[in-house]
Amino acid sequence: MGNNDKYWCAFAKLQETGFCFINKVYEYFGSIEYAWNADEKELRQIPEIRQNQIKNFLNEKKNVNPQECMDYINKRGITFIHPEDDRYPYLLRQIDNPPTGLFILGDLQSCNLEKTIAVVGSRRASENGKTALKNILSDFRNTDICIVSGLAEGIDTIAHTTAVENNIKTIAIIGGGFDKLYPKSNKELFKKIINGSGAVLTEYWPDTDAISWHFPVRNRLVSGISKGVLVAEAAIKSGAMITARLALEQNKELMCMPGLISNPNTEGIYKLLKEGAGLVTKSQDILDYMNWNIKKTEEENRDSENYTEEEKLILELIKKDALTIDELIIKTNLNINDLMVILTKLELNGIISRQNGERYISLV
Fold first, then answer.
1. pTM of the predicted model as reported, rounded to 2 decimal places
2. What does the mean pLDDT of the chain come to?
3. Are 103 and 80 in contact (CB under 8 A)?
């Protein structure tokens, strides 16, 4: 770690001193160490810095020791990066008011930042919307795409969960510190992400509460680190619409997934579509808008080689819709004995499951 890391880390600990102030001070002095140690007289020379901001900073930093901050983060096993760090995502360097520091759990380096798609939407998403989103994202199973979202309830949870279940890397950007995870119901999902499925990022010190105004501020990072943004469900006044506007300001590809017109959470969707957002009804639409060619991972290639032709046919048939044994017999032309052998094998291997005891659905 460089000598400047502790000063960036100390600035990141300050909760009353905003990132706008820090960016201006750093830009003015050209040195984060100088910025940290600057006195009131020097700080007053900076254009557009208010006196109350200077006083807040000087008062708050009295109780902060840069080296102790860095030692604490290292002891916690948290990765900390800042704008002078080569690991800092280049897309975030290009947005207004980029984060002055990012705390990371998991493995950000394993995520393909060239193929990041943000997925945002309602916390109270409809079952229709959640199912449609899961079907679309599941098609990216074992590819090099990375799904970004905010670990909130509803659409965010579906996006991350689908990624985890389908060997897709995912980045969760949260609106508070790691010790104050919100919502608590996503604690297990949080663990799965940091234990092999991607990374969780935040610009807030570990014990920072996830207060309401943090979330719209956080949204600039969700869209900022992404190449494109998919809005799954959104009311006219919602955080998802804020992210959509940020995406346009950041010159990102904006896409929307349509839903039932009777659902209030689709009002924002149709407004965006009328204004020119891309229409997404299947995974290929995302690839077309983004001009991406996806690569299958070694696991996907290996799995494909290990399936028999009959197994591949069955898995394709029940990929999105659960089917009964009778329906599968008709569609595959297999006799019941051969079909049951295949279904039993796939079920025992955790590749398929039964719904209501009579319908089979693919889990891959």
1. 0.81
2. 91
3. yes
